[in-house]
Amino acid sequence: MARIDVLMPQMGESIAEGTLSKWLKKLGDEVKRDEPLFEISTDKVDAEIPAPTAGVLAEIKVQEGQTVPVQTLVAVIETDKAAAATAPKAAAVTAPPVAAAQRAPAAPGGAVPAAAPPVPRPSSPVPPKGDGAETAEERLRRKSTPLVRKIAAEHQVDIATIPGTGFAGRVTKQDILGYIERAPTAVVVPTAPTPGPQPLAPAVEPWPGDRVEPFSKIRKITADHMIMSRRVSAHVTSFFEVDYSRVAELRRKHKAAGAERGVNLTYLAFIAKACAENLRKHSVVNAAVSGDSIIYRQDVNIGIAVALDWGLIVPVVKRADELSLSGLARAISDLGERARTKKLSPDEIQRGTFTITNPGVFGSYAGAPIINQPQVAILGVGAIEKRPKVVTLADGTDTIAIRTMGMVSMSYDHRVVDGADADRFLADVKRTLENFPDGAI
After folding, report:
1. What residues have CB less than 8 Å from 339, skipping those under 6 apart?
2. Which of 72, 113, 192, 260 has a C-alpha 20 to 30 A away from that of 246?
């Protein structure tokens, strides 16, 4: 018989805490080893956490909506079913997410490590309801990130008095900085300089019959990131029309053989391969801005935007220029599937140097995507379909033919990427796709 502690995992070196967003098992449920047990949400990624062992979920220590430090005891799994069935129900009472509720892993030799220091708390947390019960939304409202709590403590601000725009009213960094800036006697917290004033969005009241739904964590992060990108980069977009007839021919020719190897030769895989081959040649497109300097990236790491029911995420194919077309196709398919099933690790959505977004799968003709900071360019793929096209024959005469056509667009940061740079890169991508070699499959 054994009682196995389930701890809040650390999803990346910079992650200090996580929000338990959803339990996938109920108290008393049997669980299998590596079966999804609960979902967590961090500043980097939403993910399903698997059970460390098979058994019965005997205790739940952290409820949905609670945000706790990493290594906090979340639950207990009893490997002996009979013992779990007779366990006292009081064991299932939620423990508060403070240092006393934390259990650090045992040190070598069985020694117990020193207790972790207490986690800073808001000066005046929101009190629970009179009956002692606290909803998930109330817990989220009371909680915040360590950075927000630190700012609040420095300025002696009660977080409970600040209207939060995060999930379930959670106070974000932007909320507390805006509150401090608007306070008549407050000392403004130094932040990175931004061009122009920061307008406040007008308050919007719901009308009768409207449904009000708080931003999910991933939606809030995406929104903040997009606003910041538009504010930081000088966006310009160029558009090129591409004849995909050669790619369509190669897909028909190699589709069956690829399927036997478990490879889906999508148009996106060909486009990613064409970009990967040309990014090193056009290094300014594979760059980042740091102050008054340009960082020319050595690695070619291509992010592929994936639309999810609950938001947008961009997993990254590392060293994409070193992969074959089949390897790229496999990587894109694998990352996309694991993004949809919340199986990505934080490292797999970081260190991108260039991004591709494919709204064309939904029928969009063309678009002007927002740059994924700190990158300087993002490629948008429009719908690929058969269209009439003027074609010049070998004898020099023109005719109208049915060709497989599509638009590609690229938004780029005009602080470092000139129009000529962007267009030369797009021209090379177009040329690669229209003359894709058979031997590269």
Report:
1. 306, 308, 313, 315
2. 260
Surface-to-core class of residue 315, CB atoms within 10 Å of its CB (0-12 exposed, 13-18 middle, 19+ buried): buried
For residue 263, which of 275, 254, 273, 272 has the smallest C-alpha distance? Answer: 254
- Catalytic pick from 225, 414, 423, 428? 414
Residues of the chain with CATH 2.40.50.100: 3-110
306 burial (CB, 10 Å; 0-12 / 13-18 / 19+) is: buried
> For the domain bounded by 236-440, which CATH number is listed?
3.30.559.10
Angle, helices 325-340 vs 267-279, to 10°: value is: 120
**Average pLDDT score over the chain:** 81
Task: Check if the beta carbon of residue 40 is closer than 8 Å to that of residue 19.
Answer: yes
Residue 292: active-site member:
no
Give 53 or 177, the one with higher predicted confidence: 53
Contacts of 30 (CB under 8 A, 6+ apart): 54, 55, 56, 57, 81
> Is 74 a residue whose pLDDT tops 70?
yes
The full DSSP string for 176-199 is HHHHHHHSTTPPPPP----SS--P
Residue 362, C-beta contacts closer than 8 angstroms, at least 6 positions apart: 307
Name the token pair of 165: 């725009």
**Is 421 in the active site?**
no
pLDDT computed for residue 85 by the predictor: 54
By residue count, the chain amounts to 441
Among the ranges given (71-75, 194-198, 298-302, 304-308), the one the predictor scored with the smallest mean pLDDT = 194-198
- Helix ranges (H only) for 184-244 are 217-232
Q: What is the pLDDT of residue 37?
A: 93
Cα(312)–Cα(303) distance, integer angstroms: 12
Domain with CATH 3.30.559.10 in the chain: 236-440
Decide: 47 and 40 in contact? Cβ < 8 Å.
Answer: yes
Q: What share of the chain is helix, strand, coil (3-state, %, to 5)?
A: 30, 25, 45
Q: 234: left (phi > 0), else alpha (psi -120 to 50), else beta?
A: beta
Phi-psi region for residue 20, left (φ > 0), alpha (ψ -120 to 50) or beta?
beta
Residue (of 198, 191, 199) closest to 173 by Cα position? 191
Closest CA to 276 of 325, 233, 210, 338: 325
Of 29, 34, 158, 418, which is the active-site residue?
Answer: 418
